[in-house]
Structures are given as structure tokens and as C-alpha cells.
Design brief:
217 residues, mainly alpha
């Protein structure tokens, strides 16, 4: 028995313990460094995500607020169009003759007024478009919800912009079927529908922010 013990002791004594310890320490340090790097990357991504959500939220709500005035101007434009519906001098050969009459009488002036407010939307709108593209690389959960909400809010701006273009051009060929179709589409725009669409997309956008904030805190 003592002989076996002596052989075991001799065997272990033959090892280069200093090298073994250095190897263990190196492995441990590499493991700690890898873990620290992963933690740092995770924290960095979380910080980038938080910064992104704060910035895009700022501009989305700035755009929503600046769209209030154009939306109400659309309401007055529609009232103006409807107020001409009973005029006897309307050209009944045209589709939407009351709209054509209104555009020829007041369209340019009202379009300029509307355009002043639409220009206030441009800066937040451009920032949102830039941020939406940037956010694709940040690893958000359900990022398509953010994209869709932003795009649909921007679409409300584009719908109002289309109306502004139509009423601001009194010399269009109103007998042209394409022009008639565009006119019918743009004057069908309802301010209450714009408001509803924006509110619905804002709720979805806020839910996206809430879900992702909860993941990083």
C-alpha cells in the first residue's frame, strides 16, 4: 500500500504545477473577459435602443402635434367645397363640380395656407424616416410594429399633401378621367378618419416602446 501511495505522490510531483496553475488562471481570465465583453455589448445595445426609442418617440409625437392644424384646415376645406354644392352656375358635366368651382375660386389661397402648416411637419417627418431605417440594425423585438405605425402616421401627412396639391392647381384638366379620379380620392379625405388613424397608430407605437423598454430595464 505505501508503495502505491509513493507512486501516486511521485506521479503528481512530476507535474509542472506552475504551468498548470498559469494555464488555469489564463482560462479563468479568458472566461471572465468573454463574459465581461458580452455583458458590455448587451449594455451598449440596451443603451443604444433606449436612446433610439427616446428620440423616435420625440419626433413621432412632434409630427402628430403638428398634423393637428392641417387636419382642421382640411375640415374647413371640405366645408367650403360642400357650401358650393347648390350653386346654379356649377358645370354639371364635370364630376364633383362643386369641388372644381371651389378650387377655381378659393383653391390657391387655401392651399397656400395649408402648405404653411404642412411645412412644419417636414422636419420631424424626415427625422422619423431616418430613424426608422437606422432602427432596423438595433435588434428590437417586433420592430415591424414600429415601422408600420410610423409609416401610417406619415401617410396621413401624405394624404393631406395630396389634397393641398389638387386644390392649389385650379387650371388642371378637370375633364380628364385621371384628374377626376384624383380629385374624387383627395376630397373624400375625412379629418375624423385622419384623427382616428393617427390615434390607432400612436397606441401601437406606444405599445412597441413599452414592450421594448421592459426588455432592457
Amino acid at each position: 500500500m505505501p508503495e502505491i501511495i509513493n507512486k501516486i505522490i511521485t506521479f503528481f510531483n512530476s507535474w509542472n504545477w506552475s504551468e498548470i496553475i498559469r494555464g488555469i488562471v489564463s482560462i479563468w481570465m479568458a472566461t471572465v473577459a468573454t463574459f465581461a465583453l458580452k455583458t458590455w455589448k448587451k449594455q451598449l445595445r440596451a443603451q443604444k435602443q433606449a436612446n433610439f426609442m427616446g428620440e423616435i418617440s420625440k419626433y413621432v409625437h412632434q409630427l402628430i402635434n403638428t398634423l393637428i392644424a392641417p387636419r382642421e384646415i382640411v375640415r374647413h376645406i371640405k366645408i367650403g367645397i360642400e357650401s358650393h354644392a347648390s350653386l346654379i352656375q356649377l358645370n354639371k358635366n364635370l364630376k364633383n363640380p362643386e369641388a372644381v368651382y371651389y378650387i377655381q375660386k378659393r383653391g390657391e389661397e387655401d392651399a397656400k395656407h395649408l402648405l404653411e402648416y404642412l411645412r412644419l411637419c417636414e422636419q420631424p417627418l424626415l427625422k422619423i424616416c431616418s430613424l426608422v431605417a437606422e432602427g432596423q440594425a438595433l435588434g428590437f423585438k417586433n420592430y415591424n410594429e414600429c415601422q408600420n405605425s410610423c409609416n401610417l402616421i406619415i401617410w396621413q401627412y401624405e394624404r393631406i399633401q395630396a389634397l393641398c396639391f389638387i386644390i392649389g392647381n385650379p387650371n388642371l384638366n378637370w375633364e380628364n378621367p385621371t384628374v377626376q379620379k384624383s380629385l374624387s380620392k383627395t376630397i373624400s379625405l375625412e379629418p375624423d378618419d385622419i384623427k382616428k388613424q393617427i390615434e390607432e397608430q400612436n397606441v401601437k407605437f406606444l405599445n412597441f416602446l413599452k414592450d421594448n423598454y421592459q426588455r432592457i430595464i
